[in-house]
Amino acid sequence: MPRVLMLRDQEPRSQVEELGVDQLPDRSVSVDIDYSDLNYKDALAVTGKGKIVRDYPFVPGIDFAGTVRESHSDRYAPGDKVILTGWGVGERHWGGFAETMNVDAEWLVPCPEALSPRDSMLLGTAGLTAMLSVIRLEQAGLAAGSKVLVTGATGGVGSWAVQMLAQLDYEVHAVTGKADQHAWLKELGASEIVDRSELDGDTRPLEKGLWDGAVDTVGGKVLASVLARMTYQGRVAAVGLAGGTDLPTTVMPFILRGVALLGVDSVMVPFEQRQAAWQRLAALPRDLFTRMHVEEVGLGQAATQAEAMLKGKTRGRVLINPH
Ligand code: NDP
């Protein structure tokens, strides 16, 4: 009788329920979940503040790591360690806030040997997205040693991006709205801290060029300010919308400085690219994992953590242990 966090389009919106295995979706691989985690999109889904979920009742959770219990696919056998991120799981398909979930084999990637299920969810969609951003910047020619800005730096994607870029010898500047987290960001590898208030106001189309690259998890005016402050042929990976979906900019950064705006999507990214990213994540040094701030909670605390995340009150990663 797996326990799940069930969402309903009524009050109470979420509660922990026990389901019969025959109530789970009819899909080819059944996975016993060790860990899921809370991402910004999960917070929107759990609280109902974003239109993430449309069909109820619904089990949220856009990613999980666990062990195959039963498989009707020749790709996976019982006992295999697997990771799932994206593909609309936790949005259109029942997700990872559960002890067991049935999913399509095509949505899974094998868990690399070097990563435990807990480590892989300490990374989760956030870590994968940070790595996809790093890869995008590298492919666009960003050279090691250059100055790279990370916005929303204490968040899941942001804090992993700070660590990964610092480890690759970029000079990382971290933007945060949290005045009490500067020391932690420096511990993660940031060499300079920029207060969010310096970037979230109106900006001129072009300002003095300060950074050669950026990972932006915020969008809105912050992204417009970042674009205006890139050096010649700077590269910006646009990842998120924690500060808004609009982009009040002009074509000036693109046509006068040759700035490149690079979209990053972790949901539909093809299998080979995911697997390559997970191999790089598996090779990260252990101290990056120990420095990450983690809050580990059960299914019953997911809603409280989701409210806190949308208020910008979480930092690092929130792990969901369904057991
Ligand atoms: P988190 O909540 O962990 O991090 C978001 C961070 O953004 C916060 O910690 C805060 O950092 C900053 N922030 C929050 N609210 C605001 C605001 N109003 N204005 C400016 N900054 C703000 O979320 P995630 O790391 O999980 O996700 C970050 C973003 O990336 C989200 O928009 C998410 O949807 C998106 N995303 C996109 C993916 C993709 O595939 N493209 C995959 C994963 C996430 P601080 O206090 O340090 O400033």
UniProtKB/TrEMBL annotation:
Q: Which Pfam families match?
A: ADH_N, ADH_zinc_N
Tree of life domain: Bacteria
The molecular function terms in GO held by this entry are: acryloyl-CoA reductase (NADPH) activity
Matches recorded under InterPro entries: Acrylyl-CoA_reductase_AcuI, ADH-like_C, ADH-like_N, ER, GroES-like_sf, NAD(P)-bd_dom_sf, Zn-ADH-like_protein
Residue ranges of domain Enoyl reductase (ER) in the record: 14-320
For this protein, the record's SMART domains field holds: PKS_ER (SM00829)
Please report the name of this protein according to its UniProt entry: Putative quinone oxidoreductase, YhdH/YhfP family
Could you tell me which species this protein originates from? Answer: Modicisalibacter ilicicola DSM 19980
